[in-house]
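Quick start: read one record
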Amino acid sequence: MAKNAPYGDNRRVGMVKERSQTFNPQTEQWVKRDTTTGRFMDVKQDGSPFKGVRKEK
């Protein structure tokens, strides 16, 4: 049976809340956005999507 211990080791379990990501076709990179303010937060440099962050349509 899998478990998420040890606790307090700064690991995320599940989806990141209040974040979304979208693909920028000009740069061909994924951009992370804060859903409460709508500001862009981070860009993924290797071309793969962020883990645990939902994708915008």
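DSSP finds no helices and four strands in the chain.
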